[in-house]
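Good morning C.,

I know you're traveling, so I'll keep this short. The sequence:
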Amino acid sequence: MKKLGLTGRILIGMIAGGILGFVLNPFNVDGSWVNFFLIDGVFRVVGEFFVTSLMMLVVPLVFFSLVVGTCSLSDPSSLGRLGGKAIGLYLFTTAIAISIALSVAALIVKPGNNVGLERPGTGSFDASEAPSFVDVLVDMVPRNPIDAMAEGNMLQIIVFALLFGIAMALAGKPGERLKSVFDDVNEIIMKLVMLLMHVAPYGVFALMARVFGDLAGGELLQGLAKYFVTVLGLLLFHGFIVYPTLLSLMARMNPFTFIRKMGGNQVFAFSISSSNATIPVTLKTVKQRLGVDNSVASFTVPLGATINMDGTAIMQGVATVFIAQIYGIPLEFTDYLMVVATATLASVGTAGVPGVGLIMLAMVLNQVGLPVEGIALIIGVDRLLDMTRTAVNITGDAMVTTVIGKSEGKLDETVYNDPEAGLNVQSSNNS
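The tokens, ready to paste straight into the viewer:
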């Protein structure tokens, strides 16, 4: 099992749980031992333990990742023109990604329609009145940051973490000392995330067994298939249509050259499913294959691995619509705006390691009042999509880096247009 890797083990857990759920489904009636000991017993305990563990990490992960990232990239020299361009472009592409995802999922595909699950723990759901957009903006600033953390109000936590990180960067020596502490805490939280992902196959098994054990018919499978195809299609569209189009419009560079030179890097990112682990390869590709000067690339590529999570934003948008539809929970226009704002800002604190996107999804679902238990429905297939999301994310990092390099006069167009440039480096990375 260990040799399979995390993806293989989660896939096995998903399939095995689904098969067992279907097998147990005819015997799952009220009062039966299957219902008491398995569906609402063992599977419920293991599954809810896994979901609760995801929720446990949301607040510390977002806060410490954001503070560390903002502090590292927000010193006085980095808060000028280059930092403004990079952060603005990354957030802009993320907002485009989730807006497209919500539009396609809610208006065209509607992957969760006609499934009709009941909200976990209740027989019906009465949606609370959605706040106005003005209220959403006003409430972004926390009156009490500790209270915001205790209640899990993620927009307020994100705003406070950004301000705290900037203040640390501007504080000089005290900020540097505190940053070293935050770096250590952030590393420990990342270890917690990885520990949790090691038990993910068992959590997925229990969640899928319970879900399919409670269902009759193939409506959910059809919905999951539509969800999977929708997310995959939007990821490919964003990576191979949106990014090249933006590159062509903003930098007037040949988008086909860009896609061709990024191919090896995309395969590498797909195979390891981690934006952070791909940083060295992305840096070499951007500098030696695309011709971006190190003064730009060394800033924008690590920044992109920290805040550019377009692929994750696409998943969150489609998953939010899917979960709302399968539980029959209507979302208002302001809810969609909340999802766009939350997912865009949360991308700043999404670490580039496998599995963190699910924790961010739990945050987004909480923000609009959707049941976090809905993650159980997509977590199995989500791991399969995670590799594609990583390839999309690093493509966005390289695109933004190229655009900024061109605007700053730090792009060697001779290298960019040379199909042989940096091939020796690329081959050494792939060996």
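Safe travels,
E.
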